[in-house]
Amino acid sequence: MNDSWQKVIRPFGKIGSSTQLFDAGCTALKELLLAAAGKPDPPQDLIINLLAGPHQSAPEAQRMHVLIANRIRSVLDEQRLVSLDTLMALGDGLREVTQGNFSGNTLLPLAGELREFQMPQPIFRNSERDQWAAGIYN
Fold it and tell me: Model's pTM, two decimal places?
């Protein structure tokens, strides 16, 4: 366990820019997934299945596992987050561009998904927050 933890945190030791932070995050995620699933590059769905718990053999347990995984997916959809697959593919594509391999045809659709991104929605609207926080003075 200590070795896998060291591999996850090691990339963050030399951060000097946002690009290095992104690369360190990708490397750490790959190391974490290699330790947890045995695969360094699983799609987002496999990560969700890992978060939902270990594989189950009983039918009722499998149903609950699917229910939890679907709930995680619905939360991600409701928050309108850009998929992890899109972020990783865009990062890989931009890295190829910096190395001289231009792949604009594959990067444009990915960049379009970023354009559609919206910040997560607040839990309460202003009117709801005022109603629940009556008596608190700022």
Answer: 0.67
Residue-wise burial string across 65-96, b where 16 or more C-beta atoms lie within 10 A, e elsewhere: beeebeeeeeeeeeeeeeebbbbbbbbbbbee
Where helices occur in 53-102 by DSSP H, the ranges are 59-78, 84-98
Residue 100 φ/ψ region, left for φ over 0, alpha for ψ in the -120 to 50 degree band, beta for the rest: left
Q: How far apart are CA 40 and CA 27, in angstroms?
A: 9
User: Which of the 8 DSSP states describes residue 12?
Assistant: G
Tokens 């070795």 correspond to 3
Span 23-74, pLDDT tens digits = 999 889 888 888 888 887 667 888 898 999 988 899 999 999 999 999 999 9
